[in-house]
Amino acid sequence: MSAALVLVLASIFGYLLGSIPFGLLLTRAAGGPDVRTIGSGNIGATNVLRTGRKGLAAATLLCDMLKGAMAVLAAAHVAGAEAALLAGLGAFLGHLFPVWLKFKGGKGVATYIGVLLGLAWPAALIFCAIWLGVAAVSRYSSLAALIASALTPATLWLLGQPGIAALFLLLSALLWIMHRANIGRLLKGSEGKIGAKSTS
Predict the structure, then answer these.
(1) Could you report how far apart the first and last alpha carbons of the chain are, in Å?
(2) Following CA atoms 148, 151, 156, 159 in sequence, which dihedral angle do they give, to the nearest 10 degrees?
(3) What gap in Å lies between CA 91 and CA 18, rounded to an integer?
(4) Domain annotation covers residue 152
């Protein structure tokens, strides 16, 4: 099998794994509503939390992280570091644009963390520390994710991981694009805070 084909297969594997809509599947399995019909219509953990089921939201967060981590770890084990990078990109794109849901997925924070965990776990810990710090001060989950993701490429570069840093420069840009509505609300002062009821 050619090296190019291996990389293509790693990308496809990552995409298919990342496209599993755990938020939707778990809420349905628990007898809850279609998560796409409530709140923001997003399939991620934040919107699952709006069902009032904290356990389901936590499970969604964990599963969305694990699919990112598993994609890169499996690809690295089978085909090496370059394949792991492409599998990570595929997993992130799969979560954002799942083929099963007409390419309408989540915003990617949990899967972003999972990919980061699989590729460079110290950077993932730094991401989480920054997220917790910003969230504690501002009470804005979206702002915490935006700031932590903006700092991640630089963190990776300082940790001596330029290749992974380049990947996360792209992932961070995509994450910001997916949060464009949140950015607009933050600028207007209308973004919902952690613990407050929100429908967006």
Answers:
(1) 47
(2) -100
(3) 4
(4) yes
* Total number of domains in the chain: 1
List pLDDT tens digits, range 152-167.
Answer: 999 999 999 999 999 9
At residue 177, the 3 state secondary structure works out as: helix
**Mean pLDDT within 171-184:** 96
Task: Give a yes or no: residue 49 inside a domain.
Answer: yes
Residues 155, 127: contact at Cβ < 8 Å? Answer: yes
Whether 93 maps to a domain, the answer reads: yes
pLDDT digits (tens, 9 = 90+) for 82-94: 999 999 999 999 9
pLDDT in tens, 140-152: 989 999 999 999 9
- Domain with 71 in it: 3-98+107-188
| Gap between the Cα atoms of 131 and 200, Å rounded | 20
